[in-house]
Amino acid sequence: MSKEIEFQFNRPNDSPGYLLGQVTMLWQRKQKKVLDPLDLTQTQFVLLAALGWLSKKSKAVTQVDIANQSNADRMMVSKVLRTLEEKGFITRQEHETDTRAKTIRLTTQGERVLQRAIIEVENVDLAFFETLGTTLSSFNKNMVQLIEKNSD
């Protein structure tokens, strides 16, 4: 018989990583249900939302800006933006001052689908996290701490 595998945690529910993975999968399933009819994946939504947010402050949002805002890999962002452009949700144009960069903008269709997606996703989020009640703010602060501590 092979050696018994050892774990640091006594039970799966003692492992924060395991629990985070479980919560993430359940949350993503709920998100997928509302994003599928809009022809968006979770990743596409995140990048569109980052673009929408950044566009409130700047007319010259770049791929790097979107990657930084969404904490996503730059190559993955490039591929997903190409897909969003093919769907007619964004345009990519030459940057006015940086010849290596492209300015990313939402199209009218992209604005419409993003606004619908934001409403759906925020409603799903409120329903999903409502069980936390008055501790939601503390939960959010803890997540921000984890993001800040673990960002490279």
From TrEMBL:
<dbReference type="GO" id="GO:0006950">
    <property type="term" value="P:response to stress"/>
</dbReference>
<dbReference type="InterPro" id="IPR036388">
    <property type="entry name" value="WH-like_DNA-bd_sf"/>
</dbReference>
<dbReference type="Pfam" id="PF01047">
    <property type="entry name" value="MarR"/>
</dbReference>
<dbReference type="GO" id="GO:0003700">
    <property type="term" value="F:DNA-binding transcription factor activity"/>
</dbReference>
<keyword id="KW-0805">Transcription regulation</keyword>
<dbReference type="InterPro" id="IPR039422">
    <property type="entry name" value="MarR/SlyA-like"/>
</dbReference>
<dbReference type="InterPro" id="IPR000835">
    <property type="entry name" value="HTH_MarR-typ"/>
</dbReference>
<protein>
    <submittedName>
        <fullName>MarR family transcriptional regulator</fullName>
    </submittedName>
</protein>
<keyword id="KW-0804">Transcription</keyword>
<feature type="domain" description="HTH marR-type">
    <location>
        <begin position="13"/>
        <end position="152"/>
    </location>
</feature>
<dbReference type="GO" id="GO:0003677">
    <property type="term" value="F:DNA binding"/>
</dbReference>
<dbReference type="InterPro" id="IPR036390">
    <property type="entry name" value="WH_DNA-bd_sf"/>
</dbReference>
<keyword id="KW-0238">DNA-binding</keyword>
